[in-house]
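So, is this right?
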Amino acid sequence: MQDIDGEIALAAELLESDDPAERETAVALIEQFLVAAEHSRGLLLDKADRVAGYIDHLRAVAQFRKTESERLAALAAADARRAESLTSYLINVLTKLNPGATKFSLPTHEIRSRKSTFVLIEDEDLIPEDFRKQPLPRREMPPSKADIKAAIASGAAVPGASLQTNTSWSIK
């Protein structure tokens, strides 16, 4: 009986192969398995029932793995939220102790800050036409954030937009 289950499992695995020869081998194994019992209807039904049992087993394993995957995804999301919360707390405490610091060297870790500047479009209708991208067919001309950023950085005012600075921290 153990050999039969192994043959069924092998055939099921080979059926998924990208190699046509392996798929043909799987079909041949299943046919051989069932044909060997054709002289006895009872034996044939018993073997077909074993194949059906293996199908049930595969479906149960698939459902278990799906459920386990969802459970692990939820745990991973909770861990990520906890890590972000602890990171914020740690950065808050360290920057209160040393407000201007952009780097903290700890015994086994280093914490660094990185500043980035981005354009915040506050009111797209107020953005002047000369800060619009070239139109695409049948599309509205969106503002060019690169042009707006360059203009504001050089001291020009762009109605409806402003530069924002974000500081991000990384722990290595």
Q: What stands out?
A: DSSP finds four helices and three strands in the chain. The beta strands are 103-105, 110-121, 161-171.
